[in-house]
Amino acid sequence: MYHDLKQHFWWSGMKRDVATFVSRCLVCQQVKIEHQRASGLLAEIFQQEIVRLHDTPSAIVSDRDPRFASRFWKGLQKAWGTRLKFSTAFHPQTDGQSEHTIQTLEDMLRSCALEKCRAPICWDQVGERVIKGPEMIEVTNAKVTVAKEKLKEARTR
């Protein structure tokens, strides 16, 4: 959320404010957002750090994706001397990477299906802020007043 807001807004202590908001937002807490690097960066890191320091892998586990089953990929792995291991079809538990990807997709779908966050910090369009901003403040103030009155009544009992 911070990176999305940072493209349009900035204020002192913004990162801390966003972290505080996210920690209190129900939808944000129900869905874990994954932080991943771009695959191009991972490919570079794999080549520079893993292959350079540890040589090519002896085996790679794949989830039967057509890209990994292609003649090119099989030929490349044969040239590298790497064995291709395919996980059992329709059993993602056999491959932790597949399971992780599926879990990430489920989280993303869950975040889209749940009610959108309606707090002002999530609004990005001027029209919505103009229409709902002042009304929301009035409603919130009224609710706070009612809550204070009920708290006062409870204390006087």
Automatic annotation (TrEMBL):
Q: Where are the transmembrane segments?
A: none
Task: State the Gene Ontology BP annotations.
Answer: DNA integration
Sorted alphabetically, which PROSITE patterns does this protein's record hold?
Answer: INTEGRASE
Do the record's keywords include Transferase?
yes
GO MF, one example:
RNA-directed DNA polymerase activity
Q: Which residues form a coiled coil?
A: none
Q: Which SUPFAM superfamilies match?
A: Ribonuclease H-like
Which domain of life does the protein's organism represent?
Eukaryota
> What sequence ranges are listed for the domain Integrase catalytic?
1-111
* Manganese keyword on record: no
Q: Which UniProt keywords apply?
A: Nucleotidyltransferase, RNA-directed DNA polymerase, Transferase
- Give the protein's recorded name: Putative reverse transcriptase domain-containing protein
Q: Which organism is it from?
A: Tanacetum cinerariifolium
